[in-house]
Amino acid sequence: MFNTEVLKIKDSLIEDNAIDKIAETTAIKKAAQYILNNEVVAFPTETVYGLGANALEKQAVTKIFKAKGRPSDNPLIAHISDKNQLPVLIEGDVSGVAEELINEFWPGPLTLIFNKSMKMPQVTTAGLNTIAVRMPSHPVALALISKVNLPLAAPSANSSGFPSPTRAQHVYNDLNGKIPLIVDGGICNIGVESTVIEIEENIINILRPGGITRSMISEVIGDAYQVKIADTAEVNKPKSPGMKYKHYAPQTPLWIFKSKNILVNLLSEYNINNENTLVILSDESLNNVDENDIQANIKNMGTINNLEYIAQNLFNFLREADQKGYDLILIEEVPNKDIGEAVMNRLKKAAVKII
Ligand code: TXA
Ligand code: MG
After folding, report:
1. How many angstroms separate the CA atoms of 197 and 101, rounded?
2. Which residues face 7 on adjacent strands?
3. Cβ 121 vs Cβ 44: under 8 Å
4. Which of 49, 156, 198, 232 best tests ligand 1's pocket when mutated (most atoms within 8 Å of CB)?
5. CATH number of the domain that 221 lies in?
6. What is the tens place of the pLDDT at every residue in 114-128?
7. 98, pLDDT greater than 50
8. Residue 240 in domain
9. Could you identify the atom of ligand 1 that is nearest to the CA of residue 134?
10. Helix axes of 307-324 and 168-175: crossing angle, nearest 10 degrees
């Protein structure tokens, strides 16, 4: 058991992207010391909070799996702050389309799969011959990684299976007592995890849709490659082992409902038009319901014309609903385009029913 400490980085330093100054704060000095001692530390990234440890040390990485309760066959992403940290992680050089994508999207929410170097402990990659790598853009993440000058293995800093954390408080709720330190860098901007891609001959396989959208990738690489979302039905022989686990789920049962359905009819059909149900609705749908017909609690997720906002707040909506103790959460589907693709991917994995 740890007496988990939460140390905040000033908002102004984050807004100014003052990586060098952040690296000199007490929070980062302490965090770096823990990492060098093979402990794990939670830190913010632009997507979600990560639970980091030295990716090159088996003993350190094992503690990540333990703190989260993560299955040992689900590999981790190595986070770097500089391309010169790549050779220790990967086999061979980076070239071609991988290089183009890195030049365009790093630092940022794009994770690429490479063949792994012999120096990597098996535990980090869960025994795979490949390794996932990304360079986050959050200045606190960059400050910490460059301070220790080591790649950090870091999954999302939630208890395994729960919604990812987008605020330090979310990490605290899940991992209090299990880790020594949470570096609080405010609210994560993007709110859903990085896009994980694998490059094959002529195909970019999106193993997990995320912060970098399919169209952003297509725009960079043109027609030479087909960009497709990996088939999540392949769960028995998953390309990305994380695809087979139930994920991102609040403890309260979550149902997705299709926007074309009439809400008030659904609520009465399923006998759930009562105050124990929370309905999370878009602005647009909210304008179409007569609130007098609805006894369930309503939460506005914002307009479907601002999918970035919905992505940014998604996990917080789910976590808030859990804290309030509803029996059921009903959430409206969002358009399956742009970052909505990542939102729908997470919702479908979290939901027990789609109506
Ligand atoms: O935005 C993010 O990616 C966040 C922040 C903290 O950087 N991290 C994150 O890590 O979401 P995690 O562990 O929650 O999800 C990593 C995903 C999993 O679905 C895992 O199966 C996949 O990446 N993955 C990791 N290594 C892989 C590999 N070698 N091949 C295929 N998939 C891999
Ligand atoms: Mg995760």
Report:
1. 10
2. 183
3. no
4. 156
5. 3.90.870.10
6. 999 999 999 999 999
7. yes
8. no
9. 7
10. 40
